[in-house]
Amino acid sequence: TSVFADTLILNADAALDVKTGKLLSPATIVVEDNTITSISKRTPRNAPKNARIIDLDGHTLIPGLFDMHVHLTGDAQVHGYKRLRRTVPRSAITGVRNAKRTLAAGFTSVRNLGAGGYADLALRDAIYDGDVPGPRIFASGPALGITGGHCDNNLFTHEHQVTAAGVADGPWAVRKKVRENIKYGVDVIKFCATGGVLSKGTKVGAQQYSLEEMQALVAEVHLRGLTVAAHAHGTDGIKSAIRAGVDSVEHVSFLDDEAIKLALKHGTYFSMDIYNTEYILGEGEKAGILPESLDKERKVGAKQRASFSKAVEAGVNMVFGSDGGVYPHGDNGKQFSRMVKFGMTELQALQAATINSATLLKQQEKLGSLEAGKLADIIAVPGNPLDNITLMEQVTFVVKDGKVEVDKRTAK
Ligand code: ARG
């Protein structure tokens, strides 16, 4: 504790220990520079006189939230063929707006799973340098996928010869693509193990990479000390991805008992975007989502929610992943109430978005819970979210890295 440290003192009705579910009430958190130095029932006697004190009456303090699946450079109003008019620089600028909205919603850390032209890395670095506000970004750059797969671009004819940047076929080609992404500075690797809803001409249930390719890809990622996320809706693709050793499976729409058993055995995390379906079916057509994608969504949404209930019941490791960018950034918190509706306790939903996600990112020593010694990523909601999970849609106060980034409380 240096006498020169900047000190911030947050007084609130309560602070949530996400590891145990216990509420400390009342609660005072002391932050020095970017680190939490104490959590107690009242202001410690030795708190510096020049500290900035913020009274958050009626509020509960929670660790900064994590969303493990976003596309900050994507725009919910711009889907399908409309996307073809979006250049990489234009998407990066949209990303600046979206990063701000995401942070304001209480999400202080996100994993960005797929962006063209490494725009997500540029955004990450601009936020880190303090040019623009936003969450901590763990970025993947272009997602890997097979020719003609969900992570390719299939909107053109053969005459245009368009192939997405992440396309690689065969074990050595995927290893090379992983190496290329790492060379340009990604934090995490994303690949497409099955078809998807929003891509043209892919079967949502069908596997795309072979097990052999996935094994090579995952081995290469782990060799280099990174983690890997697999987009997978269909059961065979989910199982192959888990067997290959991925760290998380995204979407996870069609589950069977064997897939759940495999996930439990391997400790695989599931990141299930169960809010997404409401936006796609409600607003998607206007936004340019293809009719075939809307058809696929009608077959996936309800199944995915049933799979979510089963996975929660079985005790699979769950994180919060929403696919923000398909629906509007900033609405991320709406998924909490759906997670509770489809089988989680309020605490489990909050753990998914905090300590579990921090652990998936191997950041659990620094982030994911309110503890002395951890980085000061702290949010406040007006009430107790264990009683009313929709409060997670009303984040009013956000501290990231010890800095007050958002204060939406009405002046008293
Ligand atoms: N990006 C995903 C895909 O295109 C979105 C899936 C959304 N649907 C859902 N029910 N989660 O496959």
List the main descriptive attributes of the protein structure presented here.
alpha/beta, binds arginine, TIM Barrel, 412 residues, globular, 11 helices, five-stranded parallel sheet
Describe it.
- By secondary structure, this protein is α/β, with parallel strands linked by helices.
- Helix content is 32%, strand content 21%.
- The strands form 3 sheets. Strands 1, 2, 3, 4, 5, 14, 15 and 16 form an 8-stranded mixed sheet that branches. The protein has a 5-stranded parallel sheet with strand order 9-10-11-12-13.
- Strand 11 (248-251), helix 6 (257-266) and strand 12 (269-271) form a beta-alpha-beta unit.
- Helix 4 (211-223) packs parallel to helix 5, helix 5 (235-244) runs parallel beside helix 6 and helix 7 runs antiparallel to helix 8 (291-314).
- The protein starts with 6 loop residues before the first strand and ends in a 5-residue tail after the last strand.
- Bound molecules: arginine.
Please write the string of helix (H) and strand (E) elements. Answer: EEEEEEHEHEHEHEHEHEHHEHHHEEE
Give the distinct bound molecules. arginine
Q: Work out the oligomeric state of the chains in this entry.
A: single chain
In total, the number of strands is 16
CATH topology of the largest domain: TIM Barrel
Mean pLDDT across the residues is 97
Helix content: 25-40%
Through-space gap between termini: 33 Å
* CATH architecture identity of the largest domain: Alpha-Beta Barrel
CATH class of the largest domain: Alpha Beta
Based on Cα principal axes, name the global outline: globular
Q: Please state the CA-atom Rg, rounded to the nearest Å.
A: 21 Å
The CATH superfamily of the largest domain is Metal-dependent hydrolases
Helical stretch tally: 11
Strand content: 15-25%
Report the sheet with the most strands, covering strand number, pairing sense and barrel closure.
Answer: 8 strands, mixed
